[in-house]
Amino acid sequence: MGSPRVLRLLPVLLLTCVTAASAVPAGAAPRALQPPARIQVQDVPAWATAANQVGRAAPAGTAVFSVWLGWRDQPLLDRTLSGLFDPSSPSYHQWLTPREFHQAFSPSRTEVAGVESWLTGHGFDIIDVPRNRVFVTAAGTTAQVEQAFQVDERMYSVDGSTLRAPDRAPTVPAGLAPDVMAVTGLDSALDLARPDHASAPPPPPSGTSVGPCSQYWNAQSSTAFTNPFRAGAALPWIICGYQPAQIDDAYGISDLQREGLDGRGQKVAIVGTFFSPTIRRDANHFSEEFHLPRLNGHNYRQLVAPGTLRYGRDPSDAQSWYIEQALDVEWTHAVAPRADIVYVGAANDSRGLDQAINYAVDHHVANIISNSWGLPEAWASRGEIRALNGVFEQAAAEGIGVYFASGDDGDNKDVVGSKSVGFPDSDPWVTSVGGTSLAVGPDGQYEGETGWGTTSTDWNGARWAPKAPGQFLYGSGGGVSHVFAEPAWQKPVVPAADASWKGSSHRAEPDISMDADPQTGVVFSQTYVDPDGRQRIIDSWIGGTSVAAPLTAGLMALADEHSGRPHGFISPSLYALAGTAAFHDVQSPPNPLAVLRNQLLPSGKIQTHLRTLDRDSSLHTAVGWDPVTGIGSPNAPELLHLLG
After folding, report:
1. Phi-psi region of 93 (alpha: psi -120 to 50; beta: other; left: phi over 0)
2. Which of 87, 345, 386, 531 has the greatest number of CB atoms lying within 10 Å of its CB?
3. DSSP assignment string, 254-295
4. What is the pLDDT of residues 287-330, one digit of tens each?
5. Three-state SS across 373-386?
6. CB-count exposure of residue 57 (10 Å: 0-12, 13-18, 19+)
7. pTM for the full model?
8. Residue 595's closest CA among 209, 240, 208, 199?
């Protein structure tokens, strides 16, 4: 209990001071009072090194941060979660209501008041305390942060971004420390959180096409370029972007829709940042084109996470998040066209994402939450990891399934310098969604999948340079966490070698996968601005695990509709079905696969690329679970039948 400890300590300290003063002999100098003890609450981010430091943060700059208190009885919460996911337990899938969760686990009002009192005592403004009381968000100046937490705020250069972080571990008074689980926002690690989508090609200027492309797998091919894998054989052109009916047919979702499953009565929340000013127009253009219900004020709404307006706006990231919002909304809608969609956004930039997802969970706005953003786990601050893990525990306790894209940079070695899974997708209380390359036939039939991992090389007029398969471009995120232990539900399925890190078993990802390769990507609609300032909606094709995540979320809305109940955190149930007909076991093709893609260069010339599939950094597809596709991609009718 935070505040009572502070109040009990104060009288003792005052009494000690009075007694000591009265005991000082006449004429003797009084002893200096020792400052109260302080305790470190977390480490600095791994990237906040002297080598990366580029200067000091402006003392008068605005700082917005959150002090996280953690759950009141963590051992009881651990036992509760264990029972909720143990089929032999009488509490199996007996989800808690938000009220029940708050009563059992939320920090007390006294603890929150103690934190608020300490913060206001340092001159901070209190911005937000959520219903679950798990954090207190405050705002002040950099100088106030430095004084309160006894740090110096410095600026660091990381991956082309300039980020703020303390130069040493932040501390709080010893009387407050037992109530403080983490402090987020002292560093700007979440600035590194990015949407997990990849355009192929990027939105064409003024709608200019740079085809050819195929309407289905291998619909168009060419013998004008050397095939480095099968001499003399034609090479297929990239997919123009699969349409909803093709994706639905390939995974068997159309069979479910014909049975009447369309998401009716279900809600899917999508968490992101910024709010696209054209989202309804874009989504309804997509809906009209592909014969889906229109989105209106009844089946689509937007919520701003409280407190996130206080973050400074960085418009340079807005367009990428607008694309992400359109993609997530449109493809959730394509799979579950009658489900309600709620977009929960951090108002101004990615630094409010933790508050946004806490809002979505704490207000239980939906039983399914889809997220298509993340950053390398190696770059995430330990405070942020602890804070969000607590949010995901609440989601699991309340029967909310949280889905995260696993990322688009494979093992992240090219980004970080060493192998790293993503975060929050590595958290053991979320379902990590990886990516595949999907072949759909002329009649929508499933013709096969392989793991999404792409290398690229260019045609120089005579040959491919560099030699095929070329250099790694992008691919499904995956691997083994360096932070989280391996959950029990993974142990029977994930090979021990894939879950091993420094001699112990750790969480491995992804868990499940769906189409993500831009070479076999999907169509989406987005408003762009021409050079003359005129706006137009353009149908582009796009990929990334940002496609796979909303596809999976939409499918789970159908699963909840089918069963008449929320499945909640689904990963244990999925792993129990590993190796069954519920999943396509995605493996490497017997012979290498590659496709052609043309790109319009700034010079106006067209460059032809060879994109080789199933080449995901150091990650490889395999029989059974693998770090590219997890346990595989869904065979929707069988999956829903076996889930019940």
Report:
1. left
2. 345
3. HHHHHTT-S-TT-EEEEEEES--TTHHHHHHHHHHHTT-PPP
4. 999 999 999 999 999 999 887 776 666 666 788 899 999 999 99
5. EEEEHHHCCHHHHH
6. buried
7. 0.92
8. 240
